Amino acid sequence: MHRFRRAIVPAILCVATVAVPAPRVAAAPEASPVVARWYAADQVRRGALIYAASCARCHGGRAEGAPGWREPLPTGYLRPPPLDASGHAWEHRFEELVDIVSEGGAATSGIMPPFRETLAEGDQHAVIAWFQSLWPDAVYQAWLQAPGCSAPAPAESAAAP
Ligand code: HEC
Question: What's the start-to-end Cα distance of the chain, in Å?
């Protein structure tokens, strides 16, 4: 639990650390402003497959979380929270999201398995891209501007396997 709490402690404010890429996720109409995302459409597509195979059984088909997720289980373990905008995944910096996916919940006495052995780094990034694609622009922007936030440079993420 400790690791998840730490994310909320304000650190360095990181505003606009992301080089603004040409948004490749969707061609938006001129009139609607688009917050540029760090990932590309192919990462989101790959992430959706990975999510369905590895995460949906706990976090729900559309990342809506387990029913009653705010209440811990009788064992004291947390229930899988939503990863869409209805939860608080957006309060975690990118590195923390990767760390959670990679290491799972063992260190926090949770039930989430670690994925470091089964998902390559690029796949971990892709699955994060997928659930971030569910976040409306306002939530994504809040994530970008949150204390200590960071996102991979678009070029770097595109180069990931
Ligand atoms: C066996 C069930 C289970 C599976 C499978 C699972 N998770 Fe989790 N996940 C949890 C639980 C429970 C938590 C709450 C924290 C804890 O227990 O460690 C959690 C927490 C998280 C968090 C932190 C969310 C927050 O708001 O703090 C992220 C991000 C996450 N999981 C992503 C994933 C991804 C991505 C996958 C698939 C690659 C996945 N999880 C697979 C159960 C699971």
Answer: 30
